[in-house]
Design brief:
Elements: E1 4-7, H1 13-27, E2 35-39, H2 50-60, E3 68-69, H3 81-89, E4 96-105, E5 112-117, E6 136-144, H4 150-155, H5 159-188
Parallel strand pairs: 2-3, 2-4, 4-6
Antiparallel strand pairs: 1-5, 5-6
């Protein structure tokens, strides 16, 4: 499927992104597989705190710690990425991992969120070499790309923008998984008994 991009300020962006995520999760068997959100980043950098903020919001929305890896209290980052994800990814049946991360891009893309097939290479934009994470990727452009100054740009990103993007992503994830749960519960409901015939 083609990537879908929404802007934080766009009307109905949560509903649009949530529907697109639900569709892609279902296409990958989310009704039979557990879904894990790998929220990558660190709370030590404003721009890079997007993932932990999303994880924190998902936990507050009622997701459990087995479903959300990466939060403000326990960030998922370069140092602990393999250690924390490997046990879950090796489970059978394998879970469906949705990777969430901040990104840098052109000025025109700042404030947008993109959902695409395939994983995320965490830290790739700042010179780190880590394995790809996830079957689906949710990335939010938090600031402009600046080459060798990317790390400093992430440090100086406005928390207001990052908070707004984290809210958009977490709400969309909640909409998507709730939609899948509602569809699953409808499919398991017993059929209604036929009304008895009434003589005239």
């Amino acid at each position: 499927m083609e990537p879908i991009t929404v802007r934080r300020t766009e009307q109905a962006s949560r509903a649009r992104l949530g529907r697109a995520l639900e569709e892609r999760l279902c296409a990958r068997g989310a009704r039979e597989r557990s879904v894990i959100f790998a929220c990558i980043g660190t709370d030590r950098s404003t721009g890079d705190a997007l993932g932990p903020l999303v994880g924190e919001r998902l936990l507050r929305l009622g997701y459990d710690a087995d479903t959300v890896i990466g939060s403000l209290e326990r960030p998922l980052h370069a140092v602990n990425l393999l250690e924390r994800l490997a046990p879950r990814v090796d489970e059978r049946p394998s879970p469906l991992v949705v990777a969430v991360d901040a990104a840098l891009g052109p000025l025109s893309s700042v404030g947008s969120v993109t959902l695409r097939d395939g994983g995320i290479r965490p830290g790739h934009g700042v010179g780190k070499d880590l394995p790809e994470v996830g079957e689906l990727a949710l990335t939010a452009v938090v600031n402009v790309q600046a080459g060798q100054l990317d790390a400093q740009v992430l440090q100086s990103t406005r928390l207001w923008l990052v908070e707004g993007l984290a809210e958009l992503i977490s709400t969309s994830c909640w909409r998507a998984t709730r939609g899948i749960e509602r569809a699953a519960s409808r499919s398991t409901e017993p059929p209604l008994a036929a009304a008895p015939a009434v003589g005239v």
